[in-house]
Amino acid sequence: MNSHYNQNINGWIILDKPQGVSSNQALRKIQYLLRAKKAGHIGTLDPFATGVLPLAFGEATKLIPYLEGNEKTYEFTLKFGTATTTADTEGDISETSKTIPSIEEIQNILPQFIGNISQIPPKYSAIHINGKRAYDLARKGVEFEIPSRQIIIKELVLLNARLDQQEADFRVTCSKGTYVRTLGTDIAAALNTCGHLTALRRTQNGFFSLSDTILLDNLKNILYKSSGVSPLKPVETFLCDITVIALTSEQALKLKSGQTLDSKDLIPFDSIATACYENKLIALIETKENKVFPIRVFNL
């Protein structure tokens, strides 16, 4: 690791990702500013998209596998009558149509997209095809097929329609793995036209919402001023829906050293719980055969 990244930084920064940078570029910029040794993010946003991007530093990165499967909410604008190669504003025009749907027609087709549905991810995506990124193959003009996948759309709502401008705004709450660009083109196809996204904003990622976010420029100002104000949220901030188990000092020491505990010595819990001592996160734990095992130990 570069000697610049020499700080043991632990916690979360919930970034309102700006347009024009990838999720990884945004992460690396902030990791550089913090000089943080270890960093990761939950849920990739395209450079085209903006909004909630949770960034984990240090010990918080151990929680990523347990949070990245959470459902997400987006708001997006769909422009009817023009399709692009990337299904957003960054691609070339690939199809046009003079058919512009009515508000009633839009409302009528939305129910068919709610629930468990099948979706084919876009060719301009980060999916691996025989070890290569789909978007790299697409840019080279390589012909390939992406298999469909099952996703879950919990809610799909028409927020606003500006049909004189051939545009409509939607909100969708969906499972991990949903491509909103594809959802937009599929909505247009169901209306016997074509379309592409002109805006895409993630407003919620599991427990993380826009109210938790900070803008990149504001973050830079806080860090450069060195005013003692930390932009970091504590590692345990977003474990609100996981059972918390209070430990004795002896139990905490055992878990930190990788030992198991008798489940009868702790209150019962389902699946995974967080074990804390004096309000400090010690470990994520699970029960098997009357024993409690640490599955992630934290050094806070």
Task: Give structural notes.
With 300 residues, this protein is an alpha+beta fold. The protein folds into 3 domains: 11-69 and 208-235, Pseudouridine synthase (2-Layer Sandwich); 72-205, Pseudouridine synthase (2-Layer Sandwich), CATH 3.30.2350.10; 242-297, PUA domain (Archaeosine Trna-guanine Transglycosylase, Chain: A, domain 4, Roll), CATH 2.30.130.10. The protein has 7 helices and 19 strands. A hairpin with a 2-residue loop joins strand 18 and strand 19 (291-297). The mean pLDDT is 90.
Number of separate domains:
3
The radius of gyration over CA amounts to 22 Å
Q: How many E strands?
A: 19
Most strands sheet: 10 strands, mixed
**Helical stretch tally:** 7
The CATH fourth-level homologous superfamily of the largest domain: Pseudouridine synthase
Shape by Cα distribution: elongated
CATH architecture verdict of the largest domain: 2-Layer Sandwich
Unreliable residue stretches: none
Order of helices and strands: EHEEHEEEHEEEHEEHEEEHEHEEEE
Overall helicity:
10-25%
Return the CATH class of the largest domain: Alpha Beta
Q: Tell me what portion of residues adopts beta-strand conformation.
A: 35-45%
The secondary-structure class comes to alpha+beta
How would the blueprint of this fold be written?
Elements: E1 11-17, H1 23-34, E2 39-41, E3 50-57, H2 64-67, E4 72-80, E5 82-84, E6 93-96, H3 103-109, E7 115-119, E8 128-129, E9 132-133, H4 134-139, E10 149-162, E11 167-174, H5 180-190, E12 195-205, E13 208-209, E14 214-215, H6 216-225, E15 243-246, H7 249-256, E16 261-262, E17 272-277, E18 280-288, E19 291-297
Parallel strand pairs: 1-14, 3-12, 15-17
Antiparallel strand pairs: 1-3, 2-3, 4-11, 4-12, 5-6, 7-10, 8-9, 10-11, 12-13, 16-19, 17-18, 18-19
